[in-house]
Amino acid sequence: MTMNNKTRGDYFLGLCLIILIFLLYRSGFFTVEAWQNFVDHFYQNFIEKDRYMMLVKGLRSTIFMTLFATLIGVAVGIILSVIRVAHAGGIHIPVLNALADCYIAVLRGTPAMVQLLIWNFTIFASARDLNKMYIAILAFGLNSGAYVAEIFRGGIEAIDRGQMEAARSLGLSYGKSMRLVILPQAIRNVVPMLFNEFIVLLKETSVAGYIGIDDLTRAGQNIQALTMEHSQPLIMVAIIYLLIVMFLSYLVRRLEKYLSRSRRG
After folding, report:
1. Which of 261, 143, 127, 128 lies closest to 208 in space, CA to CA?
2. Are 227 and 236 in contact (CB under 8 A)?
3. Measured at the alpha carbon of residue 256, what is the angle toward residues 255 and 257, in degrees to the nearest 5?
4. Exposure of 212 in the CB half-sphere (CA atoms within 13 A)
């Protein structure tokens, strides 16, 4: 009798939980003194002087930054993917296609943190009054656009060629055929992957503190500096990220099931 993937996953998770409990027991985590020490540090880190509000404000900045960077990435990605697909489909736009290829290669080939630093300390070095949040949104959005372009390109190329031919035979121009027939179907196909890109971008914004933005990670570091406690603040930040990612992953799975049912229907 063989175990299916879900059973194996549950077995592995249970084994990891047992090992974790054993290690915590061996380290004295379940003693009264350890719990009293944990509670005291928790109060000092998050309750005293309402320091938990630093995490709340940092989380708000992280979500704001991720949301608007995703919107920029989707807009840029659609434009780049259409350019590349149109060129491959026989519309001769070599200059635009070369620029799109170069953009995607450079933005995907360099770390997002390096791009963020270049935008802040080189391109906008003289713009001292410019809000750092706008710089971060632009940097992360343009970086995400390179990945979204490949997502949309795959989604467009997955649409049967007969769809475009049928639209053109009805008298629609290439642009209208792409906008009214192809893109709506492609977007429907790539929505789950766009959610995954949102999750990746959410975690990438954790480096925004390098240019002085008090995001969620920077909030944890600020609490560290105030309380001289190095464990709990960062562990709390990690837990918050994990909970958000788990919730978004759950939404992605539900969305994929809904889309698969609608296709079969």
Report:
1. 143
2. no
3. 90
4. 8
